[in-house]
From TrEMBL:
CDD domains: ASKHA_NBD_FtsA. The gene is ftsA. Residues 25-221 form the SHS2 domain. Self-interacts. Interacts with FtsZ. This is Cell division protein FtsA. Belongs to the FtsA/MreB family. The keyword Cell cycle applies.
Length: 443
């Protein structure tokens, strides 16, 4: 039976993890452009001022990545093709790490990711706030988010209130009459999750947990001060661009639009009448998101679309490439600007935006983003892990790295009423749920 079905039931139980040994976590980033499998070893670390809240060091010991087939704008369009790519990526990571993967933490971009805040209050009657009261108010908020066609990916308390006084991080032991909580709930359509699980099951693997892509990329690309003071991470993938807003150390908003780097490539292929592969190469080698004074003087060679050897490449000014690319990039950035404004979190984001994901590596992207978003912009590369091969240190691997970091954050989540980390999919017996608990209790 599917873990993404309508009812809640147990995932296979495994033995509790030993606090005396390291833990190995396997993750799978399924994207429109590429599929990445990463295997990492998590070893206990002391609390430090660098990356506070992180309980473990993360060392990547296996990596496999393959070009995607069968995925359009983050949505699975061909099960057989995706299954084959997943098998190849996992096999390469297994060989490098020298171990076998049975279950994986996977990302999800499809399924129209939703982001809502639910508020709930309970009556304390002037008594001290106890752990049972916290559980009650979290359950009350979580129950408001239950829906039949959508599954809860993340459920994060973003702040408590006591007698109307907001912004309380930990009310335990305080006195008051009314305890309230704001709960940020990230959801996705169940059908998209079922298809994702089906693909992984067909490759003889099981789903350990599911993480929203914007959350994972934000965990990898943002520094402590950005997460604390307020910042937006924009992950520009091949078929999707996602937004995550962090503040006071927590994920407080997510959003996604179905436009990415692949749309720029198809615009070039159509505009220049060339093949997709040639358009991609032209974009990477000669493309830019902003016009340059030399563009009119420079000429680029565009291969013909046909197979006839007599067809000669067309010579076009580089300015034409820039015009086609910048039109799509400006449209995407304007959409992102409007989404941030509409979300109500624009003041929280302030002046800080971090671009990550493979499509943000286009020449001139930071300049275009600064102009349209009217904010400070930097390119975010994956941080906080060791052992990354040189090829995986770029923004294109932020989501995969974020997935390896995620288990340390899992204990921050509360799925009301059922006590499990992924309650719509299980009853909390999954290894990742217990891993989060173990990390919290042991260190």
């Amino acid at each position: 039976m599917s873990i993404f079905g309508g009812s809640s039931f147990g995932l296979p139980r495994t033995k509790p993890l030993s606090s005396k040994r390291a833990h190995v976590v396997s993750v799978l980033d399924i994207g429109t452009t590429k599929v990445v499998c990463m295997i990492a070893r998590l070893t206990p670390r002391r609390e430090t001022s660098v990356l506070p809240g992180r309980t473990h060091n993360v060392e990547v010991i296996g990596l496999g990545h393959q070009r995607s087939y069968g995925i359009k704008s983050g949505v699975i369009a061909d099960l057989d093709a995706v299954e084959n790519v997943v098998r190849l990526a996992v096999d390469a990571a297994e060989r490098m790490a020298g171990l076998t993967v049975e279950s994986l933490i996977v990302n999800v971009s499809a399924g129209r990711i939703g982001s809502d805040v639910y508020t709930a209050t309970i009556d304390l009657g002037g008594q001290e706030v106890e752990s049972g009261d916290l559980r009650k108010v979290l359950i009350a908020a979580g129950q408001k988010s239950q829906g039949n066609d959508r599954a809860v990916l993340h459920s994060l308390p973003t702040g408590f209130s006591l007698d109307g006084e907001r912004g309380i991080r930990d009310p335990l032991g305080m006195y008051g009459d009314v305890l309230g909580v704001d709960m940020h709930v990230v959801t996705a359509e169940r059908a998209a999750l079922r298809n994702l699980e089906l693909c992984i099951n067909r490759a003889h693997l099981t789903v350990e947990g599911v993480v929203a892509t914007p959350y994972a990329s934000g965990l990898a690309a943002l520094v402590d001060d950005e997460v604390e003071l307020g910042c937006a991470a924009i992950d520009m993938g091949g078929g999707m661009t996602t937004i995550s807003v962090f503040a006071e150390g927590k994920l407080i908003h997510t959003d996604a639009i179905g436009i990415g780097g692949h749309h720029v490539t198809t615009d070039l292929a159509r505009g220049l009448s060339t093949r997709i592969e040639d358009a991609e190469r032209l974009k990477v080698v000669h493309g830019s998101a902003v016009a340059n004074g030399a563009d009119d003087r420079e000429v680029v060679s565009v291969p013909p679309i046909g197979e006839d050897d007599r067809d000669q490449p067309t010579q076009v000014p580089r300015a034409l490439l820039t015009r086609i690319i910048s039109a799509r990039i400006e449209e995407t950035l304007e959409l992102l600007r409007d989404r941030i404004q509409k979300s109500g979190f624009s003041p929280v984001v302030g002046k800080r935006v971090v671009l990550t994901g493979g499509a943000c590596q286009l020449t001139g992207m930071p300049e275009a983003a600064r102009r349209i978003l009217a904010r400070n912009v930097r390119i975010g590369r994956p941080m906080g892990v060791s052992g990354l091969p040189a090829a995986a240190k770029g923004p294109a691997f932020s989501t995969a790295v974020g997935l390896t970091i995620y288990p340390q954050m899992a204990d921050q989540e509360t799925h009301a009423g059922q006590g499990g980390l992924f309650s719509p999919f299980g009853n909390g017996s999954s290894r990742i749920a217990r891993m989060g608990q173990w990390l919290k209790e042991s260190f």
